[in-house]
Specification:
- By secondary structure, this protein is α/β, with parallel strands linked by helices.
- The protein is about 40% helix and about 20% strand.
- It is built from 16 helices and 15 strands.
- It is globular, with a radius of gyration of 23 Å.
- The chain starts with a strand and ends in an 8-residue tail after the last helix.
- Bound molecules: S-adenosylmethionine and iron/sulfur cluster.
- The site of S-adenosylmethionine has 19 residues, from strand 7 and strand 9.
Length: about 450
């Protein structure tokens, strides 16, 4: 139980309390501000801790930012002292590390002192610097848009995944109507796409629908007559690959594709409910490679029952395939995932070692980290990171993570974003997650999105 006189700071404080697994403990917190000092007093386990953080500002938004920072640091230092634990990104929660670094850089400051202050481990501060440096050629605030198309269908639901999709056996009856709505949505966004940076057909598992259905989606994109740009299909699970869908993708201009093993252990794959084997991964990869796509391979570190050696083996297998991109996710506990129903906390033995190993092996193999993000409840407080061979980085992933372009997103559970650089703000429009609701609301979504981007009025 946490009692505080500063309700506004509660979400940030709770992020730290959760990090240390202390939600069930009692804290009394008192915050006040005097002479440019942000004072946090915390009564914990019968002792009083006082933390003072000094920062001068006349600006109200900055004042709030410093107050949040001071409160997080106070709780982090206290709980770190009490438990003897530290975390890879210290008290840095609730904001993407790269985003915070860019904010510092835009103020003409080096981001490293702030990261040190927030108790980020030095190797992670360096790592963020590496990501920013890889993003250099792509990082621009010149505007532009990315088109995202959501295909929320999967063959079966994986144990760790919170994705809204139900397996196709429960949703197959909606797919044709769903694509009809997509066709209308895609046609409607033509006026918004004045300077497209990328197209991304994401899942779910886009290849889990039939080739005929997929062709309707590709044809709708083709009717937009966009200039040639990065065009990804997150085809996904190796068990849904076939020549017909690959051929079709190639003929419609797709140039990047995801073949996602997650792990190369068949035993783990079965436990995760993925119903494919590593032999199918190799076969899908070889098939996709023949069409000359840039290939991305997703792995997850910390899957249940896997130790450092299992993960190292998966990494070696992925590196041996030599794809353009390898994305290393750290297992995270997500609401709505089967794993979450059965596990209150993730304690993955050796997760730090796995992430360190991924950095060492991928660097040695010639990959550079090009985008990263963190989620709540990730094993050990680590990150997800996309690695790329030089010059083969995925523009879409960078744009989405750094929010440097508009995202025109269609389909169920898609979130369109309009970035207002001058005002330093973003407006969003989320479509319903539930497919029947999405089908019903298609017209409203179309007009609301046009309004978001300055074409017409928002519907009531
Ligand atoms: C939205 S999924 C789509 C990929 C595709 N359907 C597949 O499974 O091959 C994108 C990626 O997120 C990662 N992912 C999903 N749930 C995760 C979790 N709980 N923890 C860590 N990574 C996760 C997986 O690596 C997955 O490939
Ligand atoms: S991991 Fe991929 S295939 Fe599995 S349920 Fe999630 S989106 Fe579907």
């Amino acid at each position: 139980m946490l009692n505080t006189n500063a309700e506004g700071l509660l979400p940030e404080i709770m992020d730290i309390v959760r990090l240390f697994d202390c939600e069930n403990e009692d804290f009394t917190h008192y915050f006040y501000f005097t002479n440019d000092k942000y004072i946090n007093c915390i009564d914990y386990r019968g002792s009083i801790y006082d933390f003072s953080y000094e920062c001068k500002t006349e600006d109200d938004i900055e004042y709030k930012r410093y107050a949040r920072r001071a409160a997080k640091l106070a709780f982090y230092k206290l709980l770190s002292q009490a438990s003897g634990k530290t975390f890879p990104y210290g008290a840095l929660t609730g904001i993407r590390p790269t985003k915070l670094a860019y904010m510092e850089i835009s103020q003409g400051r080096d981001f490293k002192p702030l990261f040190d202050e927030m108790q980020v481990a030095p190797e992670n501060t360096c790592f963020v610097g590496r990501v920013i440096s890889t993003q250099g050629p792509y990082y621009t605030k010149a505007g532009g848009q990315d088109l995202f198309i959501s295909l929320p269908f999967c063959p079966t639901k994986c144990r760790y995944c919170s994705f809204v999709t139900a397996p196709l056996q429960n949703t197959a009856q909606y797919v044709d109507d769903y694509i009809s709505c997509l066709e209308r949505e895609i046609a409607s966004v033509k006026p918004l796409l004045t300077s497209v940076r990328s197209v991304y057909i994401g899942g779910g598992t886009p290849f889990s629908i039939t080739a005929k259905q997929l062709e309707r989606v590709y044809a709708a994109v083709k009717r937009l007559a966009l200039p040639v740009c990065e065009y990804t299909v997150e085809a996904g699970r190796p068990d849904v690959f076939d020549e017909e869908k690959l051929e079709l993708s190639k003929s419609f201009g797709v140039n990047r594709i995801c073949v996602n093993p997650q792990t190369f252990s068949d035993a783990t794959l079965q436990k995760m409910g993925r119903r494919h084997t590593s032999a199918q991964t190799f076969a899908a990869y070889e098939m996709a490679k023949r069409y000359g796509f840039d290939i991305n391979v997703d792995l997850i570190a910390g899957l249940e029952g896997e130790g450092t050696e299992d993960f190292a083996r998966s990494l070696d297998c992925a590196i041996k395939l030599s794809p353009a991109n390898i994305t290393v996710h750290t297992l995270s506990l997500k609401s709505g995932a089967k794993l979450k129903e059965e596990t209150a906390r993730l304690h993955v033995e050796g997760i730090g070692r796995m992430i360190a190993l991924s950095r060492a092996k991928l660097t040695e193999a010639g990959y550079e980290p090009y985008y990263m993000y963190r989620q709540k409840y990730q094993a050990g407080g680590h990150e997800n990171c996309g690695w790329s061979k030089p010059g083969r980085e995925c523009v879409y992933n960078i744009d989405v993570m750094e929010e440097i372009s508009d995202n025109v997103a269609v389909g169920a559970n898609a979130i369109s974003k309009r970035v207002f650089f001058e005002e330093n703000r973003i407006e969003r429009l989320a479509s319903p997650k539930n497919i029947p609701t999405y089908l019903q609301k298609c017209d409203k979504i179309i007009s609301d999105r046009l309004a978001l981007f300055g074409f017409g009025e928002k519907s009531g």
